[in-house]
Amino acid sequence: MVDDAIVVIENVQRHLEGQTVAGTDECVHDPHKATIVAMAEVTSAVIATSLVLISVFVPVSLFPGTTGFCTNSFR
Questions:
Q1: Helices (H), 1-75
Q2: What pTM does this model have?
Q3: ∠ at Cα 37 (31, 43), nearest 5°?
Q4: How far apart are the first and last CA of the chain?
Q5: pLDDT in 10s for each residue of the chain, 75 residues
Q6: CA separation, residue 42 to residues 34, 51, 61 (Å)
């Protein structure tokens, strides 16, 4: 989840630094608009990453023994 936050923050920062919006010649200098544009670009990737992490760690945390104990904190 921290990786997703880093991706979002870096994308917002990229827009605020004056780099153009994908597919246009428009620069975004307003923080609110930069956040909206950045989230529109990475929302599907953030959701996909979260679903993959959940689909891996929830079943593994149900394993008995040491493996289940070590991954139990992810539940």
A1: 2-16, 31-61, 65-71
A2: 0.64
A3: 120
A4: 14
A5: 678 889 889 988 888 887 655 555 566 778 898 888 889 989 999 999 989 988 888 887 778 888 777 776 665
A6: 12, 14, 28
